[in-house]
Amino acid sequence: MKFNTKAVHSGEIEDPRFGNVVTPIFQTSTFLQPNPSSEPYLDLTSGGPFLYTRWGNPTLQSLEQKYAALEEAKFALSFSSGMSAISSAVMAMVKAGQSILSVAELYGQTFHLFAHVLPKYGVRVDFVPADKLNELDVKMEDYSLVYLESITNPLLKVLDIREISKAAAESHVPVLVDATFASPFNQRPLELGAEVVVHSATKYIAGHSDVIIGVAGTNSEERFKGLVSSRKDFGGSPDPHQAYLTLRGLKTLGLRVERQNSNAMALAKMLNQSRKVRTVHYPGLTDSPYFNVARRNLTGFGGMVSFELRDEECAKRFLRSLTIPRSAPSLGGVESLITRPVETSHSSLSKEEREKIGIRDSLVRFSAGIEDQEDLLEDFQRALEAC
Ligand SMILES: Cc1ncc(COP(=O)(O)O)c(C=O)c1O
Questions:
Q1: Cα–chain-centroid distance for residue 49?
Q2: Residue whose CA is closest, atom 14 of ligand 1?
Q3: Ligand 1: does its nearest atom lie under 6 Å from the Cβ of 384?
Q4: What domains does the chain contain, in order, with CATH numbers?
Q5: Residues 283-302 pLDDT 10s
Q6: Are 253 and 270 in contact (CB under 8 A)?
Q7: pLDDT tens string 79-111
Q8: Is the pTM higher than 0.85?
Q9: In ligand 1, which atom is closest to the CA atom of 181?
C-alpha cells in the first residue's frame, strides 16, 4: 500500500462486536485482570493483554501502528511530548561514561538536555556544526551515539543522514534522528540508515496545533524494548484522547504535507526574487547549498522557509502587515505560522551568541499551512511592500 492508503487504514482497531470504522478512545487508566475475553487484544509492548495505560493502551497502540506503517518501522511507540520521546530514547541508548556526537544547531530544549542534564549523569555531548558533520570531518569511533536533526531550525540546513549513517555504521555507532521538520511524508530516516527516529508529533504528524505529543520508531527489537522500558520508567505515555487526536490528524499527513511543500516552494521562489529580501533559506531552491544533500535525503523539500529582510524594523513591519499567517511559535499545523526566531525559539541566547550561529534580528521563520497558494503569495507580496 502507498502512503495515503496506509495513513487512512493502517492501525485502526475495528471491533466486530460493534462494527466501528474508527478507533475508539479507550479513556481508561486500567484493564480487567485477569482479562476474561478468550481473544483479548494484545498490548504489543508486553505481548499480553492490556493492563495499565502508562504501559500500553489500545488507542495509543492504534496510533503507534499507523505511524509505524508510515515510517516504514517494525516497531513504534508514542510519548506525551516530543521531548519525552527524545529524552526516553537517549536515556535508553547511552550510559554513564559514554559520549554522544550531536549537531550544534539543535532545538533549544534538546540542547539544554544535552548540555546541562546528561553531563550530571556522566554522559558527555560534543556539538559539531551541521556542515562539518556533512563533510564527515569527525571521528565516529569516539562516540556511543550520533544524534541528528534532519533539517535544522531555523536556517533549514539539511543533514546527510545517508552518508553520516554509513560512516557511523563502519564504527558500529547507532544514529538517532529527530525528523520533526521533515515528517514521515518527506523523509524516513530508518531507510537512510538511522537506527531510531523520533518526532515532535505536535507538529506535522498531529498537524492541527492542538496537541503536544511525540513518537519514536525503530526496526530493532532491542531498541524497542529499551524505549518501552524508558516510557514505563519516566512515565511519558500520552493520554488516550491526545493519542486519538493525533491518530485522526495522521490520516491526512500526506495531503497536508504535499500542499505545505508546494506552498513553501512557491513562497521561497517568490522571496528569492524579491529585492526586499536579503537571503532565503529553503533546501528546495536550486541555489541552496543544501539542495543536493536534500535531494539525496528527502522526498519533499518541506513546509518551512526562513528569510532575512533588510533589518529588524523591516522584519517587524513585515510581520505586522501580514493578514493570513498567525504570529506564533511552533510549526507543522494546517494554519501558516510566522515568527522571528530572536523573539521565540532563540530568545534565550545573547545577540552575540545568535549572530555566531547566523541568526540575525532580521530573520523571519515561516511554517506553511494548507491555505490557497494565491492568497499566501498575495499576502506576502503586500507585506513586502510595507518594508
Ligand atoms: C525539532 C524539534 N524537536 C523536538 C521538539 C520538542 O517537541 P515537543 O514540544 O512536542 O516536546 C520541538 C519543538 O518545537 C522541535 O522543533
A1: 31
A2: 330
A3: no
A4: 3-250 (3.40.640.10), 253-385 (3.90.1150.10)
A5: 999 999 999 999 999 999 99
A6: no
A7: 999 999 999 999 999 999 999 999 999 999 999
A8: yes
A9: 1
